[in-house]
Amino acid sequence: MLNMLFLTNSWLSSLNQPALCVTVAVLLHYCLLAAFTWMCLQSVHFYLALVKVFNVYVPKYILKCCLAGWGIPAIVITMVLIINKDFYGNGSHSESNPFSSFCWIEENTVFYISVVAYIFLILVTNTAMFITVLLQIHSVKSRTQKRSGFWKW
């Protein structure tokens, strides 16, 4: 969905329909945040599978993942729309080329908070999970090597 919206965005923007442009911008923003949220949930899943291997039963795990994966981006989008729906629009860059316009977030502050900060937070979380998983794998490997060295004469 993110790719289709991104590829058709310039064409839809050139139709000069403000409501359509806001809708496309909101959907594009939502799909982008949802993709990164699901990436974060995948890193949490790896953490649970490789670090907290035993006693990790989470009741209704898939339901909770779906609520987080689709719900957190919806909350962010809803907050932006509640504050001001005019943050979304047609950011035209050139009058000579009608396909240079793009339906997206027009306010820089909103962009930096709702996209850049959101993605940065997810990348920091993923990096922390990655380092934790690597340390766990390294400790398991070193324990295995110590045991196998103990039995070798």
From TrEMBL:
| Bilayer disposition of the protein | Multi-pass membrane protein
Q: Where in the cell is it found?
A: Membrane
Ubl conjugation among keywords: no
GO MF term set:
G protein-coupled receptor activity
* Ranges where the G-protein coupled receptors family 2 profile domain occurs: 1-153
Q: Name one GO biological process term.
A: cell surface receptor signaling pathway
Q: Which residues form the signal peptide?
A: 1-21
GO CC annotations on file: plasma membrane
Q: Which residues form a coiled coil?
A: none
Which PROSITE patterns does UniProt cross-reference here?
G_PROTEIN_RECEP_F2_4 (PS50261)
Keywords noted in UniProt: Membrane, Signal, Transmembrane, Transmembrane helix
Superkingdom is: Eukaryota
**Ranges annotated as spanning the membrane:** 20-41, 61-83, 110-137
Xref: PANTHER family: ADHESION G-PROTEIN COUPLED RECEPTOR, ADHESION G-PROTEIN COUPLED RECEPTOR G4
Name recorded for this polypeptide? AGRG4 protein
